[in-house]
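quick one before i forget lol
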Amino acid sequence: MEKGSRLAALSLLLSAAFSNCVCPISPEQIEPLLYEEQLLWVSGTQGQVSTYRIPLLTFTPRGSLLAFAEGRKSSSSDFGAKFIAMRRSEDKGATWSPTTFIVDDGTQADGLNLGSVVVDEEARSVILIYSICFHLYQCYPSSTMMVESRDDGRSWSQPRNLSVQLGVKNFAPGPGFGIQKRYNPAKGRLVVCGHGTLEGDGVFCILSDDHGHNWYNGAALKSIPYNQKKRPLDFNPDECQPVEMTDGSIVINVRNQNNYHCRCRVVVRSRDGGLSLPIDDLYFDYTLVDPVVAAGALQKDGVLYFTNPSNEQHRVNLTLRWSVTDGVSWEDKAVQIWSGPSGYSSMTSLDRDPPEDRKYIFVIYEKGHKDYYETVSFAKIHLFGGR
């Protein structure tokens, strides 16, 4: 082989290798800018829906964006009948389809509750996990449910009751996204984490090793005292968002329901693919002050991102933070996405070619002027746009 040909081949090989790597990013490179924003749902303005809450967001294996929310039919309460509302975008959030209701629980006194969305890249499917009768209000028992789309979110399967496999229990997934493990241990496993009732609270994970056909119970980090009425400052981990780190461990960022130890987030880690959550790997993140709320977390290109209403008392000031040390420390800089009332949030990104797609993260969150549940808003953030 000629010298020039060998150099060209080596250059091509290196280019291919680095295009798929998780390359470290220095703090100086990141300067997020709120690039675009639009409202996806406005409460009280559409048909049979009083309030839209609990937003979820994901990219499909084919690159479409799917946004979900609870369409609460009669009030803003966690109780009551609901729809699962969805909108779909094929141009990375520039335009969206009209709202469709992919699940309808009828007139149940204690209807469905979202939920976690998990993308199976190997099966090229999108799975949505939710609960029904979670609060046991005029209904029994609580059930964990699943619907699935294999055509990019255009249509969905009939609901399947997973309690046959998991047992009857009060399990509220997420809210946020579940993960398909990219690294060992348990590469390819689907992991969905959630919480229990206030008395039987804690972080609980359900797992599938066959693309969602069968599910089993994994890690459990229980509240103290467990299955007993809680008092202020009791240990009561609640809603949670798992992310997989590049070493294959799963870090779960958790709502600190009773403000045990601090008004901040609880962080736990599983090193065995979601089978256990040892107390040795639990800590409190004092930087992530929190008013007791579901928050967003995302690992992208070696950087950990986090969104929540950054306030110890009130659901206001939705803020984006980032860490280049896997959450050991957070950069002093932060980006305020919305100063006013703001609630639950979730994030996603498209980590594939072309390189332009890697410059953005996408945030969906509850946003209002008087109350945080007035609207659900979609924000596109350029990670290097402020430079």
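fyi The first strand starts at residue 33 and ends at 42.
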